[in-house]
């Protein structure tokens, strides 16, 4: 999992350098935000001369999915507020997928925290590598397909969990909606609109139950 994150972290480091960010800014972005897609969207907007509020808005839209992750993991992450605040920094797709795959609450928490910490370290180290050793790579990231590493890793984690018809319908419809909107919608909107897949999955479950 850490190996899958590394190329994507390098890609962000390269993007930060191309956008004119200093090394400390690029690295600090990964430490404080730690959300691959939101970071890349924000840096892309800034690199194209966009306003900072636009970059922040795009990042917030892309990270709205973390609200759902928090609801799913909340029962397993009980504790004092400071501990929950620290854990919230690890609320990313892969950590949530690993944690929610466990059946017992303690193992859900262990899987979430372990995966989150490993990915946090790998992401930040690879960001540094991308912003220094690969700063002049240019289009190398896109030519090698490095920017597709994280989505592919997340799909590999998600696919085994699509066991029922309604789950498959939700995934397919949500993915189709997002793909259709990517060329025409602002960053973040396709991710939110993909939530329409839940309605399709709910209808599929009702039909399956009525059959």
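^ structure tokens above, recovered residues below v
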């Amino acid at each position: 999992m850490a190996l899958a994150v590394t190329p994507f972290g390098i890609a962000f480091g390269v993007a930060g350098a191309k956008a004119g960010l200093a090394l400390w800014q690029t690295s600090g972005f990964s430490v404080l935000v730690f959300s691959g897609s939101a970071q890349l969207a924000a840096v892309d907007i800034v690199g194209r001369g966009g306003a900072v509020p636009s970059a922040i808005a795009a990042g917030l839209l892309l990270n709205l999915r973390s609200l759902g992750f928090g609801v799913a993991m909340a029962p397993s992450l009980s504790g004092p507020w400071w501990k929950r605040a620290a854990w919230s920094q690890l609320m990313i797709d892969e950590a949530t997928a690993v944690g929610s795959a466990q059946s017992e609450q303690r193992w859900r928490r262990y899987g979430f925290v372990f995966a989150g910490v490993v990915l946090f370290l790998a992401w930040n180290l690879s960001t540094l590598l991308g912003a220094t050793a690969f700063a002049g790579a240019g289009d190398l990231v896109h030519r090698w397909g490095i920017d597709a590493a994280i989505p592919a890793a997340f799909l590999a984690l998600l696919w085994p969990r699509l066991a029922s018809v309604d789950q498959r319908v939700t995934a397919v419809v949500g993915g189709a909606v997002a793909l259709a909107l990517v060329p025409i919608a602002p960053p973040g909107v396709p991710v939110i609109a993909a939530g329409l897949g839940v309605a399709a999955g709910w209808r599929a479950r009702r039909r399956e139950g009525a059959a």
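The chain is about 75% helix and 0% strand.
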